Amino acid sequence: MTPQTDTEAVEAANTAFYEAMERGDFEEVSDLWLDDGATPISCVHPGWPVLSGRGEVLRSYALIMANTEYIQFFLTDVKVSLGGDVAVVTCTENILSGGPAEDGAELGPLVGQLVVATNVFRRTSEGWRIWSHHGSPVLTESDEEEDEEPGA
Fold this sequence. Notes:
Helices cover 28% and strands 38% of the residues. The protein is of the alpha+beta class. The chain has one domain (6-137): Roll (Nuclear Transport Factor 2, Chain: A), CATH 3.10.450.50. Strands 2-1-6-5-4-3 form a six-stranded mixed beta sheet. The longest helix is centred in the first third of the chain and has 18 residues, at 6-23. 18% of the residues are buried.
């Protein structure tokens, strides 16, 4: 087995983050965030204010996991940029999620969403850890808007 390049290691850490979210594994999500006691972490979920510090960031993930029955991420356009001990990953999160089931159903209604994300990682003695996450919703035009002719 050949050792991973830094790019491969960052890609693996990024993938592990999304897979832990899909499994609802709060402990693993927590372990993937930087925790050096000195560097504050930050997170912006789509439509949320900036969350700063380990307590606020991890509380947000606990809330999301507690209120999301099902979530699956299909990552596209993944790009890794390295600069020493810092890496930036940009990607599109194609998200399929569902809330709690109602009226005896097995699964709540599923909703699809596109989010563009930037994940900043820092190299630590334990491997690459997330320093910051920023997700922004992708706003798409409706079919009606696309069908309209200019000047109509």
